[in-house]
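Key result, reporting period 2: structure in, sequence out.
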């Protein structure tokens, strides 16, 4: 890379910076998890859909400018309703680009946003996002748009910023209202922190009200909430209609909400203790606070960095806990984290290492089950663990591209995913013989073998 290109690259704001800036200046946000068709027009030349599909309720809901009837030379032709307006795409240029929202009435309510920069869509992974902010509405509408790749840390930031649920596909948001809701949650807790600090009780208060549970306990809290919510006694996959979706709800929704609340409290108390100390003073002036902020800046930086790392590290371990609970709930025999060979320690062996190493025909029914909440390139690491054994890799990840799934198939790796993702139009799982839903894995792979595992 040349010095000039390095400078240009470093000079451009990161996608997270752009996302935060858009969130602050837009009066309204439109967010869509892109379907395959929403991306394919930019990737292939033989696709009929151009641009991003916009449902009727969002087209006519006030976010987009009102459509106008296009003048046509043939008075008998079906009506075309359209509107041209400007969009800024800061990931590629600061100059506005003309876009078109068009509704062909001959195709019922089919409406598409076209005139989009192909380069920002062509390399996106499945289940990536379009984020569209309305900057002004009068006299002419102006919008700013970003594409957020689902495999990036920016996607996680977007999910956290506007609290997107795992099954989210499309929606509109009020940025100011979202900020106010978060502010109210923080202020409610801040009053308790202030009272504890003034009383000299900040240390015991932190221990009882702002201590992050360990991964095992937090995972257990999430499962308890799930069981109570769905009036279930155990996490038995044979008695749950869609066990894969249950795992996704527990890990990506319930536990994530719990984690965010604990982390919000933990960071709030930690910041107070860093800046103000543990002992109350008679008078706290602005000079005291400013001096402490400057003096403790490195410690504050470490706190924020550790919070980010905490979010990333907890997900994989907790998913393993949920898989283990489901195996136990279903009475499925397994061994966990058993060393099978040098430096090879798969998450689960069904039913046991002794069984799959036995030199008898039934041993072929044994299998390795690995749990990865997100895959990226880590599936190759798992593949090296399998040897000649059957390997099933379970994940709640949406963004696995078709070519990666085919690579897995060539190595004999089977993917086990939530039921709702298998045929979802935002994913590329459909049509691959090495992809099973968790329901299919339980019914077609595990249950027929359990008699031989006894």
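The corresponding designed sequence is given below.
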């Amino acid at each position: 890379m040349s010095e000039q290109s390095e400078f240009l690259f470093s000079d451009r704001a990161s996608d997270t910076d752009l996302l935060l800036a858009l969130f602050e200046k837009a009066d309204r946000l439109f967010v869509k998890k892109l379907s395959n068709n929403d991306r394919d027009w930019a990737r292939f030349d033989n696709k009929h859909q151009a641009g991003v599909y916009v449902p009727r309720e969002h087209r006519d809901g006030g976010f987009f400018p009102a459509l106008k009837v296009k003048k046509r030379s043939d008075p008998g032709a079906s009506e075309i309703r359209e509107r041209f307006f400007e969009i800024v795409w800061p990931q590629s240029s600061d100059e506005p680009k003309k876009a078109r929202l068009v509704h062909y009435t001959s195709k019922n309510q089919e409406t598409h946003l076209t005139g989009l920069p192909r380069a920002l869509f062509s390399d996106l992974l499945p289940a990536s996002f379009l984020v569209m902010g309305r900057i002004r509405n009068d006299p002419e509408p102006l919008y700013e748009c970003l594409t957020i790749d689902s495999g990036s840390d920016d996607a996680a930031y977007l999910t956290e910023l506007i609290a997107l649920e795992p099954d989210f596909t499309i929606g509109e948001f009020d940025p100011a209202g979202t900020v106010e809701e978060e502010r109210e949650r923080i202020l409610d807790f801040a009053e308790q922190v202030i009272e504890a600090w003034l009383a000299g009780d900040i240390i015991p208060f932190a221990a009882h009200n702002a201590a992050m549970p360990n991964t095992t306990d937090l995972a257990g809290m999430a499962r308890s909430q799930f069981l109570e919510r769905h009036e279930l006694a155990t996490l038995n996959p044979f008695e749950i209609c869609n066990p894969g979706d249950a795992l996704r709800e527990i890990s990506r929704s319930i536990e994530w909400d719990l984690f965010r609340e604990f982390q919000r409290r933990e960071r709030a108390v930690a910041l107070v203790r860093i800046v103000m100390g543990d002992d109350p003073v008679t008078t706290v002036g602005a000079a005291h606070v400013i001096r402490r902020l400057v003096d403790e800046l490195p410690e504050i930086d470490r706190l924020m960095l550790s919070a980010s790392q905490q979010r990333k590290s907890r997900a994989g371990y907790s998913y393993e806990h949920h898989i283990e609970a489901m195996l136990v709930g279903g009475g499925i025999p397994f061994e966990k984290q058993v060393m099978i060979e040098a430096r090879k320690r798969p998450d689960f062996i069904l039913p046991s290492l002794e069984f799959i190493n036995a030199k008898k025909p039934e041993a072929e029914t044994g299998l390795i089950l690995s749990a990865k909440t997100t895959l990226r390139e880590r599936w190759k690491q798992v593949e090296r663990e399998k040897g000649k054994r059957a390997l099933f890799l379970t994940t709640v990840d949406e963004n696995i591209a078709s070519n990666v799934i085919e690579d897995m198939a060539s190595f004999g790796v089977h993917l086990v995913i939530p039921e709702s993702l298998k045929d979802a139009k935002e994913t590329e799982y459909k049509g691959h013989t090495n992809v099973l839903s968790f329901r299919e894995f339980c019914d077609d792979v595990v249950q027929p073998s359990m008699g031989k595992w006894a």
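The mean pLDDT is 86. DSSP finds 16 helices and 15 strands in the chain. This case is discussed further under Risks and Mitigation.
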